[in-house]
Amino acid sequence: MRLTGLGVSAGIGIGRALVVTRGARHLRFRIPERRVADELARLDAARAHSRVQIEHIKQRIAAAAGTEHAYLFDAQLLMLDDPMLVDRAAAIIRHERLNAESALYRALEEVSALFDQLDDPYLRERKGDVEDVVGRVCGNLRSGGDPLDLFRDSEGPLVLVAEELSPSLIAQLDFQRLAAFVTDAGRWTYHTAILARSIHVPAVAGLRHASTLIPPGALVAVDGATGDVLVDPPPEVCAELEARSRKRRAYEQSLSEYSSLPAVTADGTPIRIEANVELPEEAARARQRGAEGIGLYRSEFLLAGTSAAGLDEEAQYIVYRRLIEAMAGGRVTVRTFDVNEGQMGIGDGHDHPRSPLGLRGLRLSLSFEEVFHVQLRALLRAAAHGPLRIMFPFVTGVEEVRLARAAVARAAEELRAEGVSVPAVPIGIMIEVPSAALTIDLLAAEADFVSIGTNDLIQYTLAVDRTDERVSGMYAPLHPAILRVLRQVARGARRGGIPVSVCGEMAADPVMLPLLTGLGLREFSMTPAAIPVGKQVVRGLRLSDTARLASRALKAATPAEVERVLADSFAPVKVHGGDGDR
Questions:
Q1: Which of 3, 164, 272, 386 suits 423 as a labelling partner, its CA being 20 to 30 A distant?
Q2: DSSP summary character for residue 183
Q3: Is 238 annotated as catalytic?
Q4: Do residues 228 and 1 lie in contact, with contact meaning Cβ atoms separated by under 8 Å?
Q5: Considering 26, 479, 503, 576, which one is annotated as catalytic?
Q6: Residue 217's closest CA among 232, 201, 206?
Q7: Per residue in 81-107, pLDDT tens?
Q8: Which residues are paired to 333 by β-bridges?
């Protein structure tokens, strides 16, 4: 079976399918032979617990409404012992070595198919009772502990197949055992896609029904460049894919010489190239690839598997310190939490709409002062161990910057009162919304540096929801409006005497680098994998050429015309990396 989606992280990965559905509550995968007995014991324990629960429910119904209404639960008790349900699931565990949840849902599918063939409508409707029983047993299976613990010793490498993967789930996994990601939803600029590129794992998104079509344990081959996903491919196809993978690795290896070379244009202008990272462990790889520093550390990945309330100051301080020390004197820029209430795990008890234009980023931090204060204290303490910059996301105006700087001052004053040495820490902001771009002259007077998050800036400038497939095709980095906004921000920051960088998707695209340089930008932050290619491109540029290129591009009226300007000016450059700000 061949499925085709959107390749969001280049590379080829081959492994056994681990299927995740319903927000990581249902995990389906193969288990090693040594785990079969333990899995059968889990199933038996869950059945026993379910029996006790159903008996209790039956007694309550009988007491409240009479025994004549409790008969429905007699049927559910019988289902627990029906050889076609739980016993059938046990047989699947023994013979196919699937985890208990997978086996139960397989048995449910078989039973449901039989019910669907019945002529009697009453009997067909009894399928709901079977689903209820299976849901209860699976719930009791989950109550036995963290489901992520169940596949830690499963056979690898693994291809993670899901409806939609959250970065917090991925961050809890062993990256060394992941061959690829495959998701029903998602696009190039999803956080999950960004993380996949950052940890160098091939990924394909937007497959719609992969999580239902791909059986757990099936051999899956993923091509993150073409978007092809092959299920149970023949050996000769696997051999061809592995050969292509080796060729790609050889190409990447050929670029390694650029890692140690300075990013200087052919006419002698230095260009600063830094790395975007999600985990402190990536700092070593960033240095190896030639990063001068960390241009964007997404601190929200610290919230993986926990809430902001559960992430104390000491835990954050240790992570920030590790990151700074790993860069051995290289500058580190930490972005404060860029999440919404749900992702931060806090709230005021009311059910508010979850909107990308709602309470998120710096707005959220300013609304929950205690959480913000803890993060700022941890960052300021860590700054004693090396060059650190603090950057605030989703800034819309001067008032927010002033409030945030006041919060930093309070945290610093408090630490100094405790006898903690606090160095001067540069404070910067993300330019991600039109209001910030249009007031760059005002914001430059309040901030020590700015960084352009192109993914959100494009989305909000063009009024395109990049998660809505009906309009996502209108997400156009080469739109004339975007080029003008980028030029305005570059000019405004330069006039304000502060540095400006690009940390979004465009920075990692080697085709875009000449254009961005021509627009006046000199600092870029990208995924570590993209740095050698970026340096290769930079070292072949002349600023006079890039200025003429930008001038012609700014005269174009449509994204297609801009693209033709680029195509006419340079030979095609193949993109081998990518990253994004959100």
A1: 272
A2: E
A3: no
A4: no
A5: 503
A6: 232
A7: 888 888 899 999 999 888 888 888 888
A8: 389
Instruction: Give me the helix-helix angle, 369-382 and 313-326, nearest 10°.
Output: 40
* Residue from 191, 200, 238, 576 carrying the catalytic annotation: 191
Bridge partners for 204 per DSSP = 7, 182
Q: Over the stretch 75-84, which tens digit does the pLDDT of each residue have? A: 788 888 888 8
Taking alpha carbons only, the member of 356, 537, 353 closest to residue 459 is 356
The pLDDT tens digits of the residues spanning 41-73 come to 989 998 998 888 888 877 876 766 566 656 667
Question: What is the pTM assigned to this prediction?
Answer: 0.71
Spatial CB neighbours of 21, under 8 Å, sequence gap ≥ 6: 28, 162, 163, 211
The DSSP code sequence of 341-390 is: HHHHT---SS-----TTSSBHHHHHHHSHHHHHHHHHHHHHHGGGS-EEE
Structure tokens at 481: 């409006």
**What does the pLDDT read at residue 347?**
56
Q: What is the pLDDT of residues 510-530, one digit of tens each?
A: 889 999 999 999 999 998 888
What DSSP element (H or E) covers 325? Answer: helix 313-326
Residues 526 and 530: their CA atoms lie apart, in Å, by 6
Residue (of 437, 549, 574) closest to 500 by Cα position: 437
> Nearest 5°: phi and psi at 555?
-90, -10
Closest Cα partner for 494 from 523, 473, 467?
523
DSSP alpha helix (H) spans, 120-234? 121-125, 127-142, 167-171, 191-198, 210-213
Length of the chain: 582
Could you give the CA distance from residue 257 to residue 21 in angstroms, rounded to a whole number? 43
The contacts of residue 125 (CB under 8 Å, 6+ apart) are: none
- Is residue 194 a contact partner of residue 528, using CB atoms and an 8 Å limit? no
The Cβ of residue 473 has, within 10 Å, a number of other Cβ atoms equal to 9
DSSP letter string over 20-88?
Answer: EETTTTEEE-B--GGGHHHHHHHHHHHHHHHHHHHHHHHHHHHHHH-GGGSHHHHHHHHHHT-TTTHHH
Q: Which two tokens stand for residue 326?
A: 């790993």
- 316 pLDDT higher than 70: yes
Which H or E run contains 159?
Answer: strand 158-162
CA distance 37 to 74: 29
C-beta separation of 329 from 386 below 8 A: yes
| pLDDT over 50 at 331, yes or no | yes
Angle, helices 71-80 vs 36-65, to 10°: value is: 170
Higher pLDDT, 574 or 549: 549
Distance CA 86, CA 103 (A): 9
Residue 201 has which token pair? 């794992």
Pick from 177, 286, 227, 297: nearest CA to 529: 286
Residue 570 backbone zone (phi > 0: left; psi -120 to 50: alpha; other: beta): beta
Report how far residue 538's alpha carbon sits from residue 463's, in angstroms, rounded to the nearest whole number: 32
